Every structure is written in C-alpha cells, then in structure tokens.
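During the reporting period the student researcher (J.K.) took over the structure-prediction task from the postdoctoral fellow and processed the backlog of single-chain submissions. One of the processed entries is reproduced below for the supervisory committee.
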Amino acid sequence: MKYRWALLIFIAAFFLQVCVTGGFAVFGASPNLILCASVITAFSYQDDTAGIVLGGLFALVYDFAFSQTAGVTALAVVLSVLLCIVIRNTFLNSESSLSAAIVSVVSVVFYYNIYWILLRISGVNTAYTAMLEKLPMYIILNFIVMFITYQIMISRVVKHKTDRYRRWAD
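J.K. obtained the following structure tokens:
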C-alpha cells in the first residue's frame, strides 16, 4: 500500500476517532479507529511498515492531545500490529474473512491488556476489572469496524484469491 493512501486512511480514522466516536459510546465503550486501521492495514497488505509506522505515529499524536500519559497508546498499538503480523505470517491466510475475524478479536484483547499493563507501569491507578467489564463491548465494536474495513480493503488488495486447490489444476 502506498503511504499516501494509508495516510489518508489514518487521517480519516484519527478525525473520526476524535470527533465522532466520543459521542458514540455503547455501554461506555467506543471503537478505537486508530487500532482498527493499523491492524487491518498490516493484516491486509504484505507491506508491514504502513500499519506500524502510521498507527504508532497517529496513536502518539492522540496520546499527546488527549491522554494523561504520552506514548502508552502508541506502544500498545505498535505491539498489537506486530502481533497481527506474526499471526498473519505464521498461522493465517490474509485473504480469509475468518482469519480477519480471528486477528481482530485477538488484537483487541491483546491491545487492551497491554494498554492496561502500560498504564499501571506509568503510574495510572486503574482497576483491571474496570477494563474487563468494558472489554466485551470493545471487542464487539472494534470487530464490527475491522470487519467492515477488511471487506472494503481486501477487495482492492486481492483481485483473485488464492485457491488451495490451484496447484492441482495445473
């Protein structure tokens, strides 16, 4: 993916995160659009750098503007994207919707646990149960956003899906 297209995606995700999702809270949870864009960009495209670099950069800007600790969100996003890349390269096919669903759930659970750990390390006193009570809604909301985004992006990335039986047709 060219950086200019990824940059447009991340700019849109950042402004939607700041302007729209703050008022769109379901049971106190809203989707993290920067995380969604980072994970789906890294999962869909074989070029791993756009999701890591732009996700980390926009998460850092978000931290400086709206968070009480700088760098926590950025580090959690980068680690989640790295986990996504490892899962994609090791276990899953990036062209499968089921694989995208698995990666979205795993990355959201990993992100919020790492985010809580990093907050505790930085001195913010947050109860783990407070994060756990919102985690199901975080999973559902982020899954919906990631799945819709994946369906849009994968149609542009892959023109012809690889078939596991293709080698027998030759």
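The committee noted the following: Confidence is low (pLDDT under 50) at residues 165-170.
J.K. will present the remaining backlog at the next meeting.
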